[in-house]
Amino acid sequence: MRVEPEEGCPNKDRMGPYESEAAAADALKTAAERNKAWREADRDWDGD
């Protein structure tokens, strides 16, 4: 739940890679916003 250097936890336990440390720090917020947008778009989908 924090930004780690390349020598951090195994890659299988990570999100990323990210362009910058700031982008990595906002990763969970960004993912939550994208998930919300997809849920809303899916709700509007009419199946055609």
From TrEMBL:
UniProt-annotated stretches for the region Disordered: 25-48
Name this protein carries in UniProt: SPOR domain-containing protein
Skewed-composition ranges (Basic and acidic residues): 31-48
Superkingdom of origin: Bacteria
